Amino acid sequence: MTTPKASPPLSRFQIFVGIISNYAGKFFILGIWFLLTPLILHQLGPTSFGLWTLVGSFVNYGLLLDLGIGSAVVKYVAEYRAKDDLEMGRRLVATALCLYTLLGLLLISLSLVLVPVFPYLFQIPATERSTASWLVVLMGVNLGISIPCSTSLAVLRGLQRFYLVNLISILGSLISAAMTVGVLFMGGGVVGMVAINI
């Protein structure tokens, strides 16, 4: 039986690039949404903006269903890579993806169950109830899709490819911001803005 070879340790340069890319990614994404928020507020108006914020804040509690799976994937991908145990790494990623897919489907189902209750739970005015219901469904679908998709980012973090994670996040934010601006200027409103970002 042969002993698996260990992966080489990270160089100082790789650590430096990871740190810088993490800070750059966070500041860049924060800057995009800092600049975009006044435009969204102006285009939507205070009522629709408030509704978007309320529904988004409520639906994002679904992120608690991560249950630490993402952190476990990062940890064990790094560990299996260090041990050069690709088979266990593959099994881990496949299992995490299955669990995340089930959790994503659960989130979508919960958002559908929440639709008739949400407007009354938060005393949404009758004129905005239809919009609120659509927002709950669309944001639930968005979150249900994004949770399984986070598996690939967890794997990249476990492989210490933080610059790729940040590059993907920055590009995704730029695309999302551009689509948001486009939909708002075409008069798509809050529902169109949320739908295009799925």
Describe this structure in words.
- The structure is a single chain.
- This protein has 198 residues and is an all-alpha fold.
- The protein has helices spanning 12-59, 69-82, 86-114, 118-121, 129-158, 162-185, 189-196.
- α1 (12-59) runs antiparallel to α5 and α1 (12-59) packs parallel to α6 (162-185).
- It is flat.
- The protein starts with 11 loop residues before the first helix and ends with a helix.
Chain-wise SSE layout:
Blueprint: H1 12-59, H2 69-82, H3 86-114, H4 118-121, H5 129-158, H6 162-185, H7 189-196
Provide a brief overview of the structure.
With 198 residues, the chain is mainly α.
Helix-strand makeup class: mainly alpha
Order of helices and strands: HHHHHHH
Shape annotation: flat
With helices defined by DSSP (H or I, 4 residues minimum), what is the helix count?
7
Number of strands: 0
Question: How far is it from the N-terminal to the C-terminal residue, by CA?
Answer: 49 Å
Strand content: under 5%
Helix content class:
over 70%
The main sheet comes to:
none
Q: What is the overall pLDDT average? A: 88
Radius of gyration, in Å, reads: 20 Å
Low-confidence parts: none
Tag the structure with descriptive keywords:
79% helix; 198 residues; mainly alpha
